[in-house]
Amino acid sequence: MTTRAKTGRQGTQRPLPPSAKPRAAQRTKAVVAAVALLLVFLVWALWPSPFSRVTNLGSHGASVIAFGDSLTAGYGASSGQDYPSRLSSLIGEPVVNAGVSGDTTEAAVARLEQDVLTRNPRIVIVGLGGNDFLHGVDGPSSEAHLRTIVRRIESGGAMVVLLAFRFPSITTSYEKLYARVAHDEGCLLIPDVLHGILNDPALKSDEIHPNARGYQLMAERIAGPVGKLIRKANAGR
Fold first, then answer.
1. Element housing 180 (H / E)
2. Does a structural domain hold residue 110?
3. Which of 70, 129, 189, 202 could pair with 182 in a Cys bridge, judged by C-beta atoms 3.0 to 4.6 Å apart?
4. Could you tell me if residue 25 is inside a domain?
5. Three-class SS of residue 141?
């Protein structure tokens, strides 16, 4: 019996034609790009917004109040050039100026009821701490007073925007102090509001106060986050 050898192409792979290689590479790049876009979208969609974490986002209050010391009162500028006045123009909403020059956080607690809580606030912009630093008030006391102010405002149903400042203290990190209060109490934090102002003679009236141009810059820095907060809150009404 004669046995014929079997021949075949089994186990033999045909090489890809040269034109197929670029197409395969392009498909791979497209898949990678699509996955990257999907990851970006998921991070954007799932990452918690600082506005959504604000306590009392559904506040039924009516007024926006700026509560603070001389930086709120507008010391060093003419009437109407303070940051609350300029902020009102930028966000298209009335802003009550409840600033008192020289106020410490402790003094502000004492007038909170009369100057803020009786005015049916929806949003209160708190800007305090400079006089605590100047008078040597220790950090824990300042923080405790700030928390008291924030909690009383929030217990009345209003949102709090907390302005943060940097002071050259060797004992207290004010940046961390403001960040802790904002995080723990559900405030919208606006950091380093005076950045670049008090070291620029063109933007300040004296060593510790802005001039009209400086207050305008403060207002612009505050207007963006506050405007977004208002829109976010309005969307939920």
1. helix 174-185
2. yes
3. 189
4. no
5. helix
pLDDT score for 212: 98
Q: What pLDDT does residue 219 have?
A: 98
- C-alpha distances in Å from residue 128, one per residue of 36, 50, 146, 228, 232: 43, 21, 8, 22, 25
* Centroid of chain to Cα 224: 9
Residue 4 included in any domain? no
pLDDT tens, 41-96? 443 334 457 788 999 999 999 999 999 999 999 999 999 999 999 999 999 999 99
Q: What is the CATH number of the domain that holds 218?
A: 3.40.50.1110
The number of distinct structural domains making up the chain is 1
The edge-to-edge listing of strands for the beta sheet with 159-163 is 95-99, 63-68, 121-127, 159-163, 188-190
Q: Evaluate whether residue 22 is within a structural domain.
A: no
| Burial class for 142, CB neighbours closer than 10 Å (0-12, 13-18, 19+) | buried
Q: Burial letters for 209-237: b for 16+ Cβ neighbours within 10 Å, e otherwise?
A: bbbbbbbbbbbebbbebbeebbebbeeee
pLDDT tens string 140-194: 999 999 999 999 999 999 999 999 999 998 899 999 999 999 999 999 999 999 9
Give CA–CA dist 197/20, Å, rounded: 61
